[in-house]
Amino acid sequence: MSESIKASLRALFLARYAQFRKHLHHRLGSEDLANDALQEAYLRVENSTVRSAVRYPSAYLFRIALNVAEDQRKSNARLLSVGEVEALYDMADEAADPARGAEARNELEALERALAELPRRRRAIVLAARVDEMPHKDIAARYGVSARTVEKELRAGLEHCCERLGRDFIQRFGPGAGKQSPHDDR
Fold this sequence. Notes:
CATH topology of the largest domain: Rna Polymerase Sigma Factor, Chain: A
CATH class of the largest domain: Mainly Alpha
Structural class: mainly alpha
Order of helices and strands: HHHHHHHHH
Shape: elongated
Distance between the termini: 81 Å
Number of strands: 0
Number of domains: 2
């Protein structure tokens, strides 16, 4: 930025500083944020490299201040407060419990056994839908069946696994969604 352009922007910035602060305070809802944004905006003007005259210098300066405020807001949103950090330290790590880890391994082994009991295509459909999160229409195309067949196979496979794990099957989508399937405790 040429020194004359920079000098004129600097002069305008200082002349309208109170007006900019008022508009920013109104826009941001905080006088402190407005002041911080204006200070950083001034530094950005000083370090900018615009080579030609600015058509609307007042709007240009205000936009710089708004951009600074938005950058600061995003930066602050990623930071945790001291209280939040302390709360994280106070949380118990339930996943580290050895008994819970053993229980999870046992459940995973039971699921693997239940999947192994399924016919090959049904097992493949369950894995494609639930592990690979593949859309039903893509699964249907892969196995040369209709989407309705995929839904039936998936339901049958999930019901079988739930039964083997001693859990209720709850249909999440389609007709009957949210209803539990009958489960007999043997």
